[in-house]
């Protein structure tokens, strides 16, 4: 075979291989488009079905047997109150655990067990947390099928997210900051509370928001606790007109939340209720998307701004 | 001079010296922080205790052999059978459909984003996929029941209103972001020098991606797949809405069937008294589910340890 022939052959091989590159480019774009397209279709479908139902009345009416006058008042109030409990439980616990593991923990077996355990907790299906809450909070501790039980269940669920993001953002702070604080005579806790937590606040906030966005959409654990699907009253208000002005009666109140309300409407055979489900879903999606988008934005800004 | 400075030091404010109170406070805070960290272990223990305790009572009524071999699951009927197989088959079939969608698409997207996509595409696609993973699962359930099922019925007219197929397909789309983002992270962690070596030998991008980057990122990609599997097995709302609530021992995705999670939802929606056998069944079912996901997680852990390449 002459040299020219060989060269020709090599060129042909190169062209053939490059063609595969192109084919894969197209396949990759196509795969990405499937994901994008699904989401667009899902969102459009919900807007088409749900938009006509979205009115002021939809937010201020209780669920009803007549689909036309049913609303999500008890659902969004319930979701807000449950989230209050979740924040109150998950934020201090998550930040505390994150700080301990990153700053205090000695390198020993206990620490390793805790670390492996946090990773594993993130992989436990959400419905299992529901079963834990049903056995522990509802019956063992006697909280009943209440806002308190639901909020605590969701707090356990998002705890790993808060712990992991807290650790990551504290780890990103250079050692020099700690050494500087120690050199000035600060104790460990002074260093943590005056420097490390404030500097990592944006990162921790990102984690909390992502966790809450997940908690808002979680349905399974709350159904497992035994939340009712038809609630036509509001829990007692936390703020009272007379002394002592604050009441915690709402913690023990029966409740419903947005995703359960939506589940209830989806599983009805009448189409009118399914339109309600679309409207409730739209509210839910907009809420979680807004929270996630805010978290992503926060992280993006942080990356740009902070240069140690 | 020396004497004076010693005296001065002695007159320094006491806060620079050893302070019992300050040390006590530090100790107290450290203990408190340790307790918050240890709470995660307590949660795991509580989960195990709760599931094992209620399952233990359950298995005093039902033998483990019946539980594992009986082909009917009818705990709430007069003629009660307690065979977990129908629920397991529903779980496995819907998960298999989901993974057939999520693993190929997720892997292709990961390779594309990590090795092929221009910078701007990646910067837009990554947050977008993240948002896709943040959509509540009940919304995906709605989508499966009221959009995907009617669409599939146009292609397969005999498809019933509830089916493992449509639940699985939507679940697959839902899991794509988990698989793609973890796999992509693993591939991007492969050092540039390996790609450069491959290019220098005359390999194209595609050859480099498949034969160099993917094998090097193997353990991370495997971990992503395992995470996808445990998501699919533990997913609840999509299957509860779109796959039906009827236990059905089948391997055919075109049929309706309840999964383990759907059964727990179904029982919880009713009003079962605490302590009844029906109440205990959901803990036995949940225990089975936990063991299934735990097995996958352990396999993932072993894979990661065994095939980790260190650069």
Describe this entry's structure for a reader:
With 308 residues, chain A is mostly helical. Chain A folds into 2 domains: 3-52; 55-307, MetI-like (MetI-like fold). Chain A is 74% helix and 0% strand. Chain A is built from 12 helices and no strands. Chain A has helices at 3-50, 56-60, 73-104, 109-122, 126-140, 147-171, 175-183, 188-199, 201-217, 220-225, 258-266, 271-305. In chain A, helix 7 (175-183) runs antiparallel to helix 8 (188-199) and helix 9 (201-217) packs antiparallel against helix 12. In chain A, 45% of the residues are buried. With 311 residues, chain B is mainly α. Chain B has 13 helices and no strands. Chain B has helices at residues 2-10, 20-61, 64-69, 85-116, 119-134, 137-155, 164-188, 192-200, 205-216, 218-234, 237-242, 260-269, 277-307. The model of chain B has no long low-confidence stretch (mean pLDDT 85). The chains are: A mainly alpha (308), B mainly alpha (311). Chains A and B meet through helix 1, helix 3, helix 4, helix 5 and helix 6 of A and helix 2, helix 4, helix 5, helix 6 and helix 7 of B.
**Main sheet: strands, sense, barrel of chain A:** none
Instruction: Output the CATH topology of the largest domain in chain A.
Output: MetI-like fold
The top-level CATH class of the largest domain in chain A is Mainly Alpha
Rounded to the nearest angstrom, the distance between the terminal CA atoms of chain A is: 63 Å
- Whole-number mean pLDDT of chain B: 85
State the end-to-end distance of chain B: 60 Å
The CATH architecture classification of the largest domain in chain B is Orthogonal Bundle
Shape of chain B: globular
Name the poorly predicted regions of chain B. Answer: none
């Amino acid at each position: 075979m002459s040299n020219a022939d060989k060269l020709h052959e090599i060129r042909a091989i190169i062209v053939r291989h490059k063609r595969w590159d192109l084919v894969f480019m197209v396949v990759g774009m196509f795969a990405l488009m499937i994901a994008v397209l699904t989401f667009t279709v899902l969102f459009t479908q919900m807007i088409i079905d749900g938009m006509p139902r979205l009115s002021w009345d939809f937010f201020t009416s209780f669920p009803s047997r007549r689909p036309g006058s049913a609303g999500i008042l008890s659902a969004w109030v319930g979701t807000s109150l449950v989230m209050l409990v979740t924040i109150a439980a998950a934020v201090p616990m998550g930040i505390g655990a994150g700080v301990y593991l990153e700053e205090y923990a000695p390198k020993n077996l206990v620490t390793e067990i805790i670390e492996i355990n946090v990773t594993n907790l993130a992989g436990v299906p959400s419905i299992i947390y529901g079963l834990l809450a049903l056995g522990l909070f509802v019956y063992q501790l006697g909280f009943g099928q209440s806002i308190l039980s639901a909020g605590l269940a969701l707090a356990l669920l998002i705890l790993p997210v808060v712990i992991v993001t807290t650790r990551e953002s504290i780890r990103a702070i250079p050692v020099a900051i700690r050494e500087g604080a120690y050199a000035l005579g600060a104790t460990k806790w002074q260093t943590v509370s005056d420097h490390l937590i404030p500097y990592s606040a944006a990162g921790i906030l990102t984690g909390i928001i992502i966790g809450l966005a997940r908690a808002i959409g979680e349905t399974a654990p709350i159904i497992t606790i035994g939340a009712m699907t038809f609630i036509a009253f509001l829990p007692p208000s936390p703020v009272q007109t007379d002394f002592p002005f604050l009441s915690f009666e709402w913690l023990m109140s029966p409740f419903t939340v947005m995703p359960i309300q939506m589940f209830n409407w989806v599983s009805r055979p009448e189409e009118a209720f399914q339109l309600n489900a679309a409207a409730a879903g739209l509210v839910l999606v907009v809420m979680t998307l807004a929270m996630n988008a805010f978290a992503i934005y926060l992280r993006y800004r942080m990356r740009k701004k902070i240069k140690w | 001079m020396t004497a004076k400075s010693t005296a001065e030091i002695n007159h320094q404010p006491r806060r620079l010296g050893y302070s019992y109170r300050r040390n006590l406070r530090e100790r107290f805070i450290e203990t408190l922080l340790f307790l918050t960290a240890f709470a995660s272990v307590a949660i795991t223990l509580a989960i195990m205790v709760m599931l094992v305790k209620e399952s233990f009572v359950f298995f005093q009524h039902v033998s483990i052999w019946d539980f594992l071999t009986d082909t009917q699951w009818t705990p709430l009927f007069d003629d009660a059978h307690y065979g977990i197989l129908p629920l397991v088959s529903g779980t496995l079939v819907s998960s298999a459909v989901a993974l057939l969608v999520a693993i190929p698409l997720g892997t292709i997207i990961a390779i594309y984003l990590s090795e092929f996509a221009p910078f701007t595409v990646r910067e837009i696609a990554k947050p977008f996929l993240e948002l896709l993973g943040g959509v509540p699962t009940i919304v995906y359930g709605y989508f499966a029941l009221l959009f995907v099922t009617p669409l599939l019925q146009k292609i397969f007219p005999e498809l019933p209103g509830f089916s493992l197929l449509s639940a699985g397909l939507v679940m697959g789309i839902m899991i794509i972001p988990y698989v793609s983002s973890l796999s992509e992270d693993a591939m991007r962690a492969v050092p540039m020098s390996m790609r450069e070596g491959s290019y220098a030998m005359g390999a194209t991008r595609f050859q480099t991606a498949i034969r160099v980057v993917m094998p090097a990122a193997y353990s991370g990609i495997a971990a992503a797949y395992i995470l996808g599997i445990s998501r699919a097995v533990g997913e609840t709302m999509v299957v509860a809405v779109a796959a039906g609530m009827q236990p059905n021992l089948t391997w055919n995705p075109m049929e309706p069937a309840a999964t383990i999670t759907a059964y727990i939802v179904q029982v919880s929606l009713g009003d079962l008294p605490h302590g009844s056998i029906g109440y205990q069944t959901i803990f036995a079912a949940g225990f089975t589910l936990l063991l299934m996901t735990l097995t996958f997680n352990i396999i993932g852990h072993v894979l990661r340890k065994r095939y980790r390449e260190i650069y």
